[in-house]
Design goal:
- The protein has about 120 residues and is of the alpha+beta class.
- The chain contains three helices and seven strands, in the order H-E-E-E-E-H-E-E-H-E.
- It has a seven-stranded antiparallel beta sheet with strand order 2-1-5-6-7-4-3.
- The longest helix has 9 residues.
- It is globular.
């Protein structure tokens, strides 16, 4: 994963999650500090308390777009960097990754795992 993207994820800010093929699109938000980055598997694990609309959309198409940004990281034209991540999502409700997330966030219902296909810097 690109170092600038990882630097952005160290800041606290919103992560916007969008199902890009739903009509209308479903949109939910979480915080960057909640996201677990797995560089080896090129995926993100995100705790889900709700996210029912995203989960329902995955029955038809599990393509998902995420947007993140930070005003503190150097971007393409000064301070402020932002990224779009395109990937495929799945919800997991068991196993060691789920248990680890449940321990950290007792309110978690499932974990949204996003397998990243493309990371693109926008600003």
């Amino acid at each position: 994963m690109e170092q600038k993207f990882l630097a952005v994820m160290q800041d606290e800010g919103p992560v916007t999650i969008v199902t890009i093929n739903a009509h209308p699109a479903s949109v939910v938000n979480t915080w960057m500090s909640y996201v677990k980055i797995d560089e080896e598997d090129n995926c993100l694990d995100i705790p889900a308390a709700g996210m029912h609309s995203i989960e329902a959309d995955f029955t038809q198409d599990n393509t998902v777009l995420l947007a993140v940004g930070s005003k503190k990281v150097e971007g393409t034209a000064g301070l402020g960097a932002g990224f779009h991540l395109l990937g495929e999502g799945e919800f997991i409700a068991e196993g060691p990754d789920f248990a680890q997330m449940k321990e950290r966030f007792p309110w978690v219902r499932k974990v949204l795992r996003v397998h990243i296909k493309k990371i693109e810097q926008k600003i």
